[in-house]
Amino acid sequence: MANESDLHEDFKREHKIQVGSPRVFGIVFCIVFLAIAIWPLTNEGNVHLWSIIIAGLFLLLAIFIPDSLQPLNRMWFRFGLLLHKVVNPIIMGLLFFFTITPIAVIFRLIGKDPLNRNFDQKLETYWIERNPKELTSDSMKKQF
User: Fold this and answer.
1) Which residue in 36, 37, 55 sits closest to 47, CA to CA?
2) Does the reported pTM lie above 0.70?
3) Interior/surface letters 14-48, b for 16+ CB within 10 angstroms, e for the rest
4) Is 27 in contact with 66 (CB distance < 8 Å)?
5) List of long-range contacts for 57-65, beta carbons under 8 Å, 24+ apart
6) pLDDT digits 0-9 by tens, 81-121
7) Within its chain, how far is the Cα of 77 from the centroid?
8) Which tens digits make up the pLDDT trace of 2-25?
């Protein structure tokens, strides 16, 4: 069994993800609550006063006492990490099943095999002959 040191890949994360500053957190939440406050105006409704009060509180704390927002900032950050662990596999699965799977089904229906995976017993080799005239020293430059 291979040890972790036997592999050439390093799957460890060396860098730590840093939490944003509490001042920016407060300003962003102020903007969010202001947007919530004025949203009813789009449907000829009334402004939400409670949301304006919360937005003002976030703005005052962000300007004068930003360190008081640090616990909320950390909780919000942890919530984001949890959301990432839950939502990311779901989105990746949906992408796979709604993009890769239909393409594979269509390819099978039309009989296309881009990887040429069919086994042909009549062939002596699967080696693809290349024309040596095509290979020049210039063709080896900037390969990627």
Assistant:
1) 37
2) no
3) eeeeeeeebbebbbebbeebbebbeeeeeeeeeeb
4) no
5) 58/26, 58/27, 58/29, 58/30, 58/33, 59/26, 59/27, 59/30, 61/26, 62/22, 62/23, 62/24, 62/25, 62/26, 62/27, 62/30, 63/23, 63/26
6) 999 999 999 999 999 999 999 999 999 999 998 887 888 88
7) 16
8) 565 666 676 676 677 788 899 999
